[in-house]
Amino acid sequence: MQVCFKASETVEILIEEQEVPVQHYLRQPQRLVKAIANPQLMKQLAENLYELKMRSLNFMEIYHFQPIVILKVWSDTQGNVYLKSQACEIKGIEYINRRFSLQLKGILYPEINQNKTCLKGQADLEVKVELPPPLMLTPKPLLEMAGHQLLKSVLVRIKQKLVTQLLKDYHQWVTQEVQQEEVTLGNKISTDFGLT
User: Fold this and answer.
1) Which domains does the chain have, with CATH numbers?
2) How much is the pTM?
3) SS3 sequence of 35-101
């Protein structure tokens, strides 16, 4: 028996104005990935492609497994960041790994309203899986409820990390950018006046 689980999560983050607009930060999606992913569980495969190992999950206290997702993350010139799953592997239960599909897509974008910038986003997660024989006798509504809750908890965890880590990383990035600009400007002034 195949079941399909779905979950969605939205986010709104009010951005405190900085010397460098958040749109410039968002044009570097690798910073976003590094801000929300555990560095020990993340590997960059190509320019916009990442392997993310999730923390081990358990389904109905019976099955324990670790999803590994290949994500494509990219941005456009307006600072909109997109993500889409490219592949997924389930470590721990080979039966499920061979009968499992995962689709994740999301967007994070800046919206300016009355001179205030707010980051808005949405992530949609869908999992289809052929149930192992021991679960086939479990009532489908119970399985669906457990599956939806599991997916929702994954998205909520990502959202919490995004809300806390993204702002922290953005502020650090702005500080680095401003300091770099000051050094560059200081060097230019020195050479313009023959001080070097």
Assistant:
1) 2-192 (3.30.530.20)
2) 0.82
3) HHCCHHHEEEEECCEEEEECCCEEECCCEEEEEEEEEEEEECCCCCEEEEEEEEEEECCHHHHCCEE
